[in-house]
Amino acid sequence: MPPREKTPAEKAAEKARILDAALDILAADGYEGLTMRRLGQKIGASATKIYLYFVNKDEVYLSVVIEGYRQLCDSLRQAMETVSGGEAQFDAFLHTYLEFAWSHPTFYEVMALKKVPMQADYAGTEMEEVARRKYEAGMEVFTLTRQVMEHYLSDKGYTLQVSRDAAAFSIIVFLNGLLNTYYNRLAHTVFSDLDQLLGDCIRLLKNSFRNSALSEGDQFQGKSGE
Predict the structure, then answer these.
(1) 90 near 7, Cβ under 8 Å?
(2) Rounded to whole angstroms, how far apart are CA atoms 119 and 131?
(3) Residue at 59 is within a domain
(4) N vs C: which end of the chain shows fewer Cβ within 10 Å?
(5) Do residues 141 and 191 both lie within one domain?
(6) Structural domain containing residue 147
């Protein structure tokens, strides 16, 4: 008797189990450490079984990163929907971005991996479409960053005359810089109160917008009395 065909729910659960195992391998040993054989061993199956769900290890890697971006975006949207007002949403966005990385360290580490194929490396290959979805998932984080920044600036009455993309990118650089000091233990070495450090750094970021608005009329214009 042939084996019973798995239901869509069972197939989805099996794919999720494979991706969870791949996430652990990628976080521990990077892209080079991920192989279909090792992945099969981790879930107690043959590499052949993995190929029933994924074409190759690149599809596994790309799928893990896409899932990480999806969860991050969902968390950011949910946090912003629970509050109203540009500043409150900006605060919620910043804290949630950091909290996601702290509560999902393996996802953050994999999403930040450096020695991995770039999107251009997949051009003309069977993974080109999956790589495009990974790029779009990453750009969704950038789009949310720009949107929440613009809402904050609008509420404050600041009109940004410089590149908004550059300003949004600087926020992501700021957040990832904080996370890097956290993961390499530098922040723990220098500061005894990490919560206070986080609050102070976020205030500095917000003050940089305000100070620029007050001092550089060619870049920002603030409401009178701000």
Answers:
(1) no
(2) 6
(3) no
(4) N
(5) yes
(6) 69-215
pLDDT tens-place string over residues 18-36: 999 999 999 999 999 999 9
Q: What are phi and psi of 23, to 5 degrees?
A: -60, -45
Q: Are residues 118 and 35 in the same domain?
A: no
The answer to whether 132 and 66 are in contact (CB under 8 A) is no
> Cα(150)–Cα(172) distance, rounded to whole angstroms?
14
CATH code at position 147: 1.10.357.10
Q: Decide: 58 and 140 in contact? Cβ < 8 Å.
A: no
- Kindly state the DSSP code that residue 83 receives in the 8-state scheme: S
Backbone φ/ψ region at 99: left (φ over 0), alpha (ψ -120 to 50), beta: alpha
- Model confidence at 187, pLDDT cuts 50, 70, 90, reads low
**CB-based contacts of 134: which residues, under 8 Å, 6+ apart?**
62, 65, 66, 69, 119
